[in-house]
Design a protein that fits this description.
The protein has 320 residues and is α+β, with helices and mostly antiparallel strands. The chain has four helices and 20 strands. The longest helix has 60 residues, at 2-61.
Length: 320
């Protein structure tokens, strides 16, 4: 009876061991098959991604297929200054100065003007941040030129001004303003000698004048002669970038034409010259004055007296 039971237990153990091995083999086969299927799916996905990336790169290289076309968004361009804008500006004292700042691709950024000598913010956009109402930002017709306007310029206004755009980091464009003071003088002055019956042309040179003066008045003594046709012709012309010339031409000079002539431009102080009429005397003899003339009679006698005293002193010293 015991032997029969032992045989039954052995057979059960054999059956159990055989079933376990069979189960393990099934599990192993399923695992291997699942791994193969996963690797195949991963490889197919990688091939698809590589193909899409290659297509995107190829599309990005063509001008027709832009990023905007592919993604459906507009490309972003950073603001940039037009470097052809004048960086040095000259204006006449009392005139209006215009400092230009051209910004392309401004977008939603703002433009500010700053006075560099004290870092005072003058304007932001078209709003003014200084109590001096001479300063103002104006826009031109093209829309991208932000002009700083300074009316009735003063000498203290000259210096460097910064046009700043509110990018991150900020970008700036600098303009140097020079305020010029015009000066006038008449060539050949302060005294001009003219022979009776001849003609004369007085030339008034106005320097440091970027713009022609609004007017140039000529005076004979205290009388304005611009519209006096008997006196001659008056002309105004530009001689150089910052130089204006006004000429007064007088013909058939007589005694009535002698006297003081004044050139009075609107943008500079007046300047005068004295015209003397000669009857044929040598001009050199008529131009003598107390500062530059040769010795007159009194000076000559005084000089001879001093020489005589010195001569006597030398004789007395030698004969001792």
């Amino acid at each position: 009876m015991l032997e029969v039971q032992e045989c039954s237990l052995l057979q059960a153990e054999k059956l159990s061991s055989s079933g376990a091995r069979r189960f393990l083999r099934i599990v192993l086969r399923v695992t291997i098959l699942s791994s193969l299927l996963f690797l195949r799916a991963t490889r197919a996905q990688d091939d698809t991604t590589s193909t899409d990336t290659a297509m995107l790169d190829k599309r990005s290289l063509t001008q027709e297929d832009s990023v905007e076309e592919y993604w459906g968004v507009e490309p972003y361009n950073l603001p940039v200054f037009d470097n052809s804008t004048a960086k040095n500006v000259s204006t006449q004292l009392g005139q209006t100065a215009f400092l230009h700042c051209i910004v392309d691709n401004l977008g939603d950024k703002t433009v500010s003007w700053i006075r560099r000598k004290d870092f005072h913010v003058l304007t932001v956009g078209t709003d003014t941040y200084i109590s001096d109402d001479r300063f103002q930002t104006v826009r031109t017709s093209n829309g991208n030129d932000w002009v700083l306007q300074i009316k009735f310029t003063q000498l203290k206004d000259q210096g460097i001004y910064e046009c700043q755009v509110s990018t991150d980091p900020k970008i700036s464009f600098f303009v140097n303003l020079s305020v010029l003071v015009a000066e006038a003088f008449i060539k050949g002055g302060p005294k001009i000698i003219v022979k009776r019956g001849s003609s004369i042309e007085l030339t008034c040179v106005i320097s440091n004048s970027p713009e022609p003066p609004i007017f140039v008045f000529w005076y004979h003594d205290n009388r304005m002669i611009n519209y006096d046709s008997k006196r001659g012709d008056i002309s105004v012309q530009k001689a150089a970038a910052k130089t204006i010339i006004s000429k007064l031409y007088i013909k058939d000079i007589g005694e009535a034409e002698s006297g003081n002539y004044t050139c009075g431009p609107s943008n500079a102080g007046p300047t005068s010259v004295s015209v003397v009429i000669s009857n044929g005397e040598k001009p050199a003899a008529m131009q003598h004055d107390g500062n530059s003339s040769p010795l007159n009679g009194v000076q000559t006698r005084t000089s001879l007296l001093w020489h005589f005293v010195l001569f006597l002193f030398l004789i007395n010293y030698v004969t001792r």
